[in-house]
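Researcher: Here's the sequence for the chain we discussed earlier.
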Amino acid sequence: MQDTPKGNRIHIAFFGKRNAGKSSIINAFANQQVSIVSNVAGTTTDPVYKAMELFPIGPIMLIDTAGLDDEGYIGNLRIEKTKEIMDKTDIAVIVIDCKNKDFQYEMYLKKELGKRKIPMVIALNKIDEADNLEEAISRAKEQLDNNIVPISALQKENIDKLKEKIIEQIPSNNETTLLEGIVEKKDLVLLITPQDLQAPKGRLILPQVQVLRDILDKGAMAMVLKDTELKEGLKNLYKKPDLVITDSQIFNKVKDMIPIDIKLTSFSILMARYKGDIKLLIEGAKSISSLKPGDNILISEACTHHSLKGDIAKEKIPKLLKKKIGGEINIDFSSGGDFTKNIEKYKLIIHCGGCMLNKKQMVNRLNKAREKNIPITNFGVVLAYLNGILDRVCEAF
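Model: Thanks. This is the structure I predict for it:
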């Protein structure tokens, strides 16, 4: 895997009315044509993504969105898609045409972004066309904010100042990692990576790659093996592992092979801790004890893939749940970037590790469940609970 995963990039989204110049700014920002630009209002329809590096932040994702003043039935659908982008936005850039005198949409944007606690920068665009620039800046500051950067996307004027202002908005706690506070320099970490039918051909899955990289970054040592070689691998070690990380699907097989004095956890649980609220997810798993036959449960995955025999979401978790609850339950499934909107009917939501989501998006999904008082957990946490080792796999934290 050669590129930084999309979910690990800081998402910077550009919002505003049609023809405010969002696409032109992104093209100037990236110094290449990312989005199609024209004088026709509504040229950008679906969100456009561009991955790039921004020093000293590192990997970022630029997002171009449709105008919030789009019209008609299709226009309303585009607006809804733009609102969904807010749930994954780390930093927002509100783009305004400097000739604009009506800030109704921008005030709405500021309110919605504020609800989500998203840092904002305001780009006052097209200053090369301004009749009275000082008046335009004063007008925007009076109604919106002092955090305004006057720019010209067409002339590429002040684009560097816009970048500097965006960099200032990066939260200071952004540099957390999957193994923060768990693995130290010179530790030995054992990674158990089963290569079954569901394993991708010719590569490891994303959480495994990320954990392996984090081990190397921390100056620790890693041993990677399949579960079928676990016993032999343990025999050949010159020292006891400081931590064993396994695929959650084989908890039941691995738990008795790893001595009780060795810390054990899973890739999915590490992802839950890194991108969400591990305490909330543990509480969600424990709520299974109060479920009854006939209850509604949602199992949600962030990515879309073809289900195979033994699929963790479609087969393994439902089977273990029915056994634990003692009867049939109603299970709905969702997948992809769109989280189910109407979650009120569910007694429990079980989410994947969210390796394809950025932290902001995962936290927003957790908060939606929290606001509705619906227990939520993740695949790794629920499998640990159903296998009776939840306390053990959380000891590493």
